[in-house]
Amino acid sequence: MDSLTINGFGSSGGGTFQTVELNGKGTINGDVECKQFSCNGAGTMKGHVKAETVKISGRASVHGGIAASSVRIDGSAKIEGDVDADKVKIAGHASLSGHVKGDDLIIRGKASIGKDCEVEHFTAEGCFTIDGLLNAEQVEIKIHGGESRAKEIGGRRIRCTAHRSKFLSLLKPFLPGPALTAELIEGDHIELANTTAKIVRGNTVIIGENCDIGLVEYKEEFRQAKSAKVGDSQNI
Prior knowledge:
1 helix, Polymer-forming cytoskeletal protein
């Protein structure tokens, strides 16, 4: 099986390859299926990518979707279709217009998702925007001072905590208010800090520092920090 490499300015049709490597300003006109796909330059994919591993270290524009075992974005990526992968790690900047599905999504950079995100484990230490539903078994969000939002968040265990550092403590008076915003947060065990939400619903709900919640609905336990604002709480 042949490999495809574009080092300078160049273009190619799609097809099935062992590896695909875009090191220059390359364009692929069609769908690609390969074991390894990498973009280290400024690559444009005018089709879908199906691969075992996808790594974007440069700047990539994908007009279709991506299906892979693992996707890693260290550079900048704009993907217009859906992303379906076992593991997605975003350390750079990613604009994903479609749905995201998989096992693990790790955000350490900045990500925007145009539709729903359905994964087993969602971990964010960077900033994210999800226009649809974030649904995961485990949701772990560590606030570093940036703004993140999702329309709705659902999961079995949801934790949003503030990242502790001396540097951020010094900047605290200058940082904006709550860093996570959602209309609805619903799960079994919910623990929140620095969060604004209209409704929080769960079995156990712990509302920590710097939260502004309209309504809390809980079945078993509800705790609220002194600095948190809760409009109403109901045992359901």
